[in-house]
Amino acid sequence: LKMKKIVFAFAMCAVLVLTLSATDLMEPESNLTAGFVTGNPEIASINQMSFGPEGILFLGDSKNAAIYALNTKDLQATSEVAEINMSGFDTKIAASLGTTIENIKISDMAVNPVSKNVYFAVHVADGTPVLLKLKGEGFENVSLQEVRYSKIALTDPIPADAKDKRDRPLRTWAISDLKFHKGKVLVSGLSNKEFGSTFRSIPFPFTDTQEYASLEIWHAAHGKYETHAPIKTFDVIALDKVDYLMASYTCTPLVLFPLDALKEGIHTKGRTVAELGAGNSPLDMISYEKEGSTYFLMSNSNRPVMSIKYDDIAIFKESMTEHVTVFAETEGVAYDNLPFPYVLQMDKLDATHVIYLQRQADGDLRLRVRPTEWM
After folding, report:
1. Could you tell me the CA-to-CA distances from 95 to 99, 102, 125, 130, 282 in Å, in that order?
2. Counting runs of H as helices and runs of E as strands, what totals does the chain give?
3. Closest CA to 148 of 28, 243, 48, 263
4. Residue 26 confidence class, pLDDT cut points 50, 70, 90
């Protein structure tokens, strides 16, 4: 009888431990993640990434023409900024995946503003997307299989088999950039409409609602109005208390669109405020504050990082409509070339530091953190 009591007591303790463990694993849902489901979202590509609140990571999947919101549960806040200066970055990523640099492509980088952890989207040789988190000098694989997520499919994306005049696939530009802003996921890319350049505004948490407007710009380097090329990178800028989409395109016009004008089914003509030089494609755009002033940084395929002052944009009231006939000549809003060529990815690490991925002159790919006071 005594032995039975001992066994029973042990069994009750085990049940209590399991119950407490299960309770510990059940994390309360916020209003933003209450509608998330657990499972395999079957993400086919990761073309663009951006963090929202509460460690939610938004992934743009051009192959599936969908936006995914992942609950990373990466909410350990920190104010510390790591000193990062990693050489051979692509070699280290490839080694962590058991392959070589010829078999990987780093498609985007995003910083979690809560934890300051840095995430990388990588595609391996067969196109499979991989999500990695920087951990010291190594990487942690972030599962895309059993996750808490939400999804919305884009309305009327560019067809999967669409090609340009040079027979290059266009589906990769279904999602060319994305950012979270004031409760909405903002997405640029191409649609299947006559005027293909499209901007979408998607309320989050996701419902069936998404607004998308077609865009038209004056392309000074080409000397004509255009509607077919996607925005390559963008940010949001407030001018006279009005939010504007500040968009950069290939070859390289900088264009402003009032955000409240980009409504469902509306064709909107932007105001071109700069031509930043033909023969170039913008890659990334971020903003930061320094000494009471706001600056925008833009990295490029064939130019150094450009620094543009907010004040210079704010005082430029004109709309460019003239053809810039000299190749690579610039007009409009002024900018400064910073001594950082071949910056492939960049993001804000915190209010006073930028993290960027830069190809060195000797071919080395380096990940570095730099204070904004030296930018």
Report:
1. 6, 11, 14, 14, 29
2. 3, 28
3. 28
4. very low
Q: Report the candidate in 371, 368, 373, 361 with the shortest Cα–Cα distance to residue 345.
A: 368
Q: How confident is the model at residue 27 (pLDDT cuts 50, 70, 90)?
A: low
Q: Is 33 left (phi over 0), alpha (psi -120 to 50) or beta?
A: alpha
Confidence of residue 28 (pLDDT cuts 50, 70, 90): low
- Going 204 to 229 to 354 to 110, the CA torsion angle's sign is positive
Nearest to 333 by CA among 272, 282, 292, 278: 272
CA distance 296 to 294: 7
C-alpha distances in Å from residue 309, one per residue of 177, 212, 278, 298 = 22, 29, 21, 12
Please tell me whether the overall predicted TM-score, pTM, comes out greater than 0.85 for this model. yes
Is residue 184 within 8 Å of residue 201, measured between CB atoms? yes
Nearest to 217 by CA among 319, 328, 329, 307: 319
Confidence of residue 14 (pLDDT cuts 50, 70, 90): very low
- Asked if 212 and 203 touch (Cβ cutoff 8 Å), the reply is no
Structure tokens at 268: 């909107």
- Chain-wide mean pLDDT for the chain? 92
Q: Which two tokens mark 212?
A: 């998308």
